[in-house]
Amino acid sequence: MVDDAALRRTVTQIFEKLGVSPDDAAEAGEVLTMTDLRGVETHGVSNMLRAYVRDYKAGKLDPRPGWRMVRESPGTAVIDAERRLGIIIGPKAMRLAVEKARRVGVGVVTVFNSGHFGAIGHFAMQAAEQNMVGVCFTGAGLSVVPTFASKPLLGTNPIALAAPARHEAPMLFDAATSAIAGNKIRLAMRVGSPLLPGWVTDKDGTPIMEEKPIFDRDDVYQAPLGGTREQGSHKGYGFALMAEVLSTVLSGALPTMLVPGSGSKNHFAAYNIEAFTDLEQFKDTMDTMLRTLRTAKPAAGQERVLYPGLSEAEEIQHRRAHGIPLHKEVIQWFAECTSEFGLAPLVTMR
Question: Domain 66-185+231-308 belongs to what topology?
Fold first, then answer.
């Protein structure tokens, strides 16, 4: 177990050693730590930090602060990240969207030519914390096979939405448009868990319909949400394409299927609730709706009904009180990394 403050401190120090400015390093440390606090290990320090370290060392990411504003209007902006890390650019882009929404009701910022954006629900929550509805889309990668196709042409292209409530935990939906997030495959490989039927395809694009352990990430492609056409994979495929249009094409960039290795693209939107309806009424309605879902009678054999964001909010409280669990292999990686950079080791709780 690791205390969240200790994790945030060590992660921030690692980014600084990579040449990232103190402010940007703190931004990255906050995003990764909050992701682990929410229980989203696939996009927290376990899977992503080593990848970011590797990309900075390889010169794939620019550690210098800044971005290039391509075009801007009172309610919109298009930003060239110039190969900077997405978890550093993302919070700034959503803050800009929120500022625009305060002035004109809705703010939309698109970003292209970026590194990985992490768990995009974090950015949607930034808007929710400012009494707005936050929406994010990502278009990145080349790992998902469209329905009936034989090779991957899309990324996992996640979608996120967050909305505030009064007493209930805020709604937070953040999910890939693929049957399984790419990082969950890496997590399954680390812990030795098999992948479930319909999550991935073989190298010909045919969905694998039995449980399958994965030892080499390159042995399989990812299937769209739904897995097969009969189970609705055309819907996941459509959602992925929707994210591609809003993130990539709207930025004036080209999809990865046309320009492999062209970086991540993102769409950040903030809706000022007060520009649409009374804020207090909105929160009361959200409370009533979310409470109705939370207290719904569960089906036989099920403990309770959840809504998106409830388990994450509960996990934040639990992990702040009891610590963040990290696999022993991750602790070992931290020991090697901090030693390499001449930093104090990551302090564990036990």
Answer: Ribosomal Protein S8; Chain: A, domain 1 (3.30.1370)
